[in-house]
Amino acid sequence: xxxxxxxxxxxxxxxxxxxxxxxxxxxxxxxxxxxxxxxxxxxxxxxxxxxxxxxxxxxxxxxxxxxxxxxxxxxxxxxxxxxxxxxxxxxxxxxxxxxxxxxxxxxxxxxxxxxxxxxxxxxxxxxxxxxxxxxxxxxxxxxxxxxxxxxxxxxxxxxxxxxxxxxxxxxxxxxxxxxxxxxxx
Length: 185
What we know:
Blueprint: H1 10-13, E1 19-25, E2 28-34, E3 37-41, E4 47-51, H2 57-65, E5 67-72, H3 78-85, H4 94-97, E6 102-103, E7 112-113, E8 118-126, H5 130-133, E9 135-145, E10 155-157, E11 163-165
Antiparallel strand pairs: 1-2, 1-5, 3-4, 4-9, 5-8, 6-7, 8-9, 10-11
């Protein structure tokens, strides 16, 4: 074994796909790319923890409006996702610049992203850890999936400018006898 610098730990435990966070400030929609998130609760009302901070233009909008949409892009949007992460909503209309379509959500003012496979309408459930850890706990209040979308492979940031694309799926449901609720089709 060789020592791994602590600054590289996240590269090996990143749990989920890169997301787009959509917010809306006085009717002006914005997007940001985000990789730092985690499922906190999956039964009943889903809770998702997200790391955002004052370095993100969307941070203040999310704190003020207390709502957003987490949109799950697929691999065909990877280049756009990286470009979205490399510019600021302060001076860029990201929906227009990257030819993405904002769609009215049902329960929040932030828009869905029509080109994404999944869109999760969210409200802040707990903001007590923002000042200490930049951790915001979001409650998913409505979820959408595009069943017609052919591309379903997600992208995962490796933490160094490279990405892993979902690939082969291993079906081990028959071995997950203790957690059968997770194996339902």
